Amino acid sequence: MNRYMQEYLFEKYELGESLRNIETGIPQEVDTIPEGQFLEASDEQIVEHLESRLRIEPITLYEDKATMEDYETKVDVAGDRQRYIREHGPFYIPGREVKIYIPYTGDKKLWHTRPSSHFMVLPTGYAEENQLIITIVKPHDANKGSFKEEFDRNMDLIKKYLENQKQEIDPFNYQLKQKIENAVKARRERIERHSGLTKVIGIPLRRKNGVPDIEKIKLERNIIKPLPKPSRKGSQPEPGITEQQYEDILSLIRHQGRSFEQAPKTYAIHDEEELRNIMLANLNSIYQGEANSEAFRAAGKTDIKIEAKDRSAFVAEGKVWTGSKRAGEAIDQLLSYTTWRDCKSALIMFNKNVANFSDIQVKLPAALQRHKLYKREISCQYQGEWRYIFRSQDDDNKEITVHVFLFNMYAGK
To answer: CA triplet 287, 291, 297: central angle to 5 degrees?
Structure first.
């Protein structure tokens, strides 16, 4: 990006590829819904929920509501062949800078996404949340009409790109509901196909007393199983949760967090401890620990743990975003716990106070990657989530997986 906050639009991503990735990922989106939640919800509720998340909103510009400001600036004319300049490098003369602010609705990411049908030339601008900024800078002796000519030329190109995007997005949105319905139907059929297992095997499924009649995912056996990797020479197998259990736990946290996002005014009134307790209750309604005890327990005011032999096999920390420093402190707290070697964890950040959510989406991962114990990033398929590997505070050879969630619960002032 140059000093005038301008960059090429529609150049980073391929729209066709993005739409195909969403389409092929629909069955997985359906499968990540916890089975108990899936069975209790109607097909219509599931389809509506996923369609609202996966639907792409094309960009609509509101030129009639555009505003403008202009002021003096310095313009580098070193590359202007119409001028005789002897010095090498930048040569600045007085000039005029014009900024045009155009409101828009739609998916901000589309400003950086190229439609399948495009041109050799790219328009320029700078996309903020809900407004596009177009900057035009010219030397003091430029013709006044040249400002409008450049603006019109750039806007004409932008409109053509947006129209080409819309021609791809509209058919995708039209077919989206049917594809989700097919995936939901396929999962229903898979579940129904095995719904009679208790009769075939002759052993009743174990259920906790006083909870809805849905299947529980039990950790009482797996929490004390050896980790699924060769033990080091001289070391003993340590407790841990399996990768599948880790993903199941994260899926529950993900869906609970999305419930928070869908009703921010309902949940934003709660503090960190209360939000943690809601998460904790949801997890313990599905999972069961040893000897009929709860699999997850609270620790401190904001933590959730699965423990075995006084060490953590899973630990989660929930914090309200107040800045990058807060995120770093949350990681410090996560890494300070006494854990088993293959400990898996989650950092759950809630935004309740910042209107510009996209700003946090940039600052949070940047803050975590600056942490002194950060090692590397692991790819993550979910938007607004990240997964990192950190070193333990007391053992450089011990790696701790941290899956990071960021939920937007901002409900306005």
So the answer is: 50
Domain spans, the chain: 7-179, 243-408
CA dist list (Å): 148 to 96, 129, 153, 207, 361:
13, 25, 8, 71, 35
139 dihedral zone (left: phi>0; alpha: psi -120 to 50; beta): beta
CA distance 296 to 310: 13
- Tens-digit pLDDT profile for the chain (413 aa)? 444 468 999 998 999 999 999 999 999 999 988 887 888 778 888 888 888 889 999 999 999 999 999 888 887 777 666 666 666 667 777 888 899 999 999 999 999 999 998 888 999 999 988 899 999 988 777 788 888 999 999 999 999 999 999 999 999 999 999 999 999 999 988 887 766 554 455 444 444 444 333 333 333 333 322 223 333 443 344 445 677 778 888 888 888 888 888 888 888 888 888 888 888 777 766 554 443 334 455 455 546 655 444 445 678 888 899 999 999 998 988 887 745 555 678 899 999 989 899 899 999 999 999 999 998 898 888 888 999 988 888 777 677 889 999 999 988 76
For residues 370 and 327, is the Cβ–Cβ distance under 8 A?
A: no
